[in-house]
Amino acid sequence: MNEPAFTLKATGRLRRRQLVNQGMGALAAGAALLAVAVLAIVVISVGSRGAGSLNLAFFTQNQAQGFNPKGGGVLFAIVGSVVLVGIATLIALPLGVLVAVYVSELAPPRLARVARMALDISNGIPTIVIGIFVFTILVAAHGQSALAGSIALAIIMLPLIARATEEVLLLVPSSQREASLALGVSRWRTTVQVVIPSALGGILTGTTLAIARVAGETAPLLFLTSLGTSSTADANPLHPLQSLTLVIFSYSDQADPAYQSKAWAAAFTLMCFVLVTSLAAKLALARYRKKLGG
Amino acid sequence: MDKKSVLERTRGRLDRIGDPALKAITFAAAALAVTVLGLIAFELVRGSRLAFHRFGLGFVTSQTWDAIHNQFGALSLIFGTAVTSILAIAIATPLAIAIALFLTELAPKPVRALLGALVEMLAAIPSVILGLWGILVLGPFVQNQLEPFLNSTLGFLPFFRGPHSGTGILTAILILTIMVVPIVASVTRELFATVPPELREGALALGATRWEMVRGVLLPAARPGIFAAVALGFGRAVGEAMAVLMVIGSQIGIHLSLFAHSDTLAARIAGQYNGSSTNLQTSSLVYLATILLVISLAVNIGAQLLIKPIDRRPRRRRIALDRAFEAQGLSAD
Fold this sequence. Notes:
Largest sheet of chain B: 2 strands, antiparallel
Oligomer: heterodimer
CATH superfamily of the largest domain in chain B: MetI-like
Number of domains of chain B: 2
Distance between the termini of chain A: 62 Å
Mean pLDDT of chain A: 88
CATH superfamily of the largest domain in chain A: MetI-like
Strand content of chain B: under 5%
Number of domains of chain A: 2
Distance between the termini of chain B: 64 Å
Helix content of chain B: over 70%
Number of helices of chain A: 10
Shape of chain B: flat
Number of strands of chain A: 0
Number of helices of chain B: 13
Structural class of chain B: mainly alpha
Radius of gyration of chain A: 26 Å
Order of helices and strands of chain B: HHHEEHHHHHHHHHH
Structural class of chain A: mainly alpha
Mean pLDDT of chain B: 87
CATH architecture of the largest domain in chain B: Orthogonal Bundle
């Protein structure tokens, strides 16, 4: 038999194009792999160093007195973080929902655009700048307090909650609003009793994401609430309180390895909280979107 | 029953004041959000007045930062910020685009969502944790492996000379790259997903390979959005304080070497504000914050204007904008 005149094997130019194609595909896969590998390395190195130092005392005791950095725990910082983030949420959640209702339900389009742009711009402001702002308006005159820290965190949360809420308000079918209005129900009752309940799931998951985000904030807290004591767990928002993030920062440059291992343990605790809550909120949000969209 | 009384019964007094009240309350909340933005700018300018009167615009071109002699200038901090952010975004952009391509074009369907979520988790790690990791894990690696390697292969360039150190510009660049990649990647990914399928199918049907389709159709269609994503990532890198503060070595001075210690605007503010001894120093730090605010406003507004012309179909545009917003809101400083 003769050799076939054409083979199905690509040669010349076509071969080169295919090789380039495969090469680029490999590079893209490599980049994705690299990102996942970096995540794995960070999580594993924090996990392996942090998990070992976790024990009951770490969560239930304050810093041990005297020269005993091995004992004690970071209860004061956990309490401080809860207070800081809790008050910030109490401020930012209602405000954020109100802003979102205005922007998506009531505002004339031009004002809505201005408000939306302001939210986007606030979201891009470095958080350290927000810290300086709160310092100049509050701390310079009244001294450090957890409340000042909470206000900074609330300023960071507000655009996050408002935009997340706006997005779910837009997903609420307009037929629901129209049905309510057609029954003669007033606008505000429609908003409060029909639209917001229907969007509530989305609003809460958006808030959870914002909580996971500000729980990791350190920079704005540095000069607003970092002078708190580490020997008592205090929940008074008018006192300066420590947070987990501040503890990670201040323990990280201590020469004593006992402090470093506490920093790792605090980092591990915070990382678990942030990753688990944000992942859960993302999943819930995706399901919620599907439910309203479908 | 006359008409008025029907209305009277179905709409109680509460309803008549309810509508305007809701409108007023929500308007007040929105006005507050806008006002805070203006107030931030106002307070920063006010707080930096003392330093502005003393140093004027020369603050920006002066290198000294000397608390003992009360001489302050931002040049070396601006240099440090520019070098770390620009190099980080330069490394991060191709990586992020490649990741986005893999996630939208190549990865098997079931893996896509998982991989996308993992990349976003990288963004969700608080920067103080990345900083801790940078000091204790990445730093030693940079000092003992990466810097000797760079020095021996590229040491003829002035950028890769000098004493090896775990803290410095190079470590800061690597940490910033890790923070910025997921932000750029998740915006870019969404942009690729909004390119109409007819376009890519058309290219493939004409016999283009997948890469040719990406280069000829996907990248040009998403280009303005990618610029915007890069701008947002750059803004994030510029404003990053904690992680950079922890790994950069906090030193004033302009050096060509990437191994050298340095400092950035944000890191200097975070590092010195509590220990500031004089009003002039505090005011100088607020001046730095004002410079930072101006840069971040310019970058953010620029990014928004860039996203605008991508797609005139409002829904697509909104999705891209929302996505950019969400990605930016992921990581805590």
